[in-house]
Amino acid sequence: MRPFGDATRRNIAEACAAFARLPDAAEPSALKRAAVVLALTAADDGDDTAFLLTRRASSLRSHRGQWALPGGRCDAGETPVEAALRELDEELALTLSADAVLGLLDDYPTRSGYLITPVVVWAAASDAIVPNPDEVASVHRIALDAIERNDAFDFAAIPESSRRVIRFHHQMSLIHAPTAALIYQFREVLAGRQTRVTDLEQPVFAWK
Asked: Would you state the torsion angle of the CA atoms of residues 64, 66, 68, 70, taken in this order, to the nearest 10 degrees?
């Protein structure tokens, strides 16, 4: 159990600071840059710490209806942190400054041509979240206890790839990579483990 408050914020900031990200590639990547946010806030019970997970709107052109962390493509000249904070504001009307950032996780390359940077932020005042209906069908607060269970994640083999497909079990849903991979690495960071996830596969339906 991680009570939502300053002590938990400090502990998570320390865990992020102790995490050594994979170094950037020596050559510029052909992948399009994107960023997502692990926004830490109060859980539904108001006491524990949770992160925000969205269900994408059914009207979107790609990955409609899928579970996702808030985020999107970086605009020209934007850093991943700037893009993450902008997307959080655009999707959920949650405005945070750069001092809310606790750390970054490893960049994750997707089959659809993006290099995603996960940005961990502390969203102290999130009671005024307003989902943008053009982008977000619903928003959910996932308590950190839910991702720290032994049975929260599993790994499956598929004939199309030699890499393992990671799955996060959330209620009656299976959440896949890239979202599941990023949440899994965050879980590992919280536990003080330097676990890499770039070799974890996405399901075939997410390759486009």
From this structure: 30
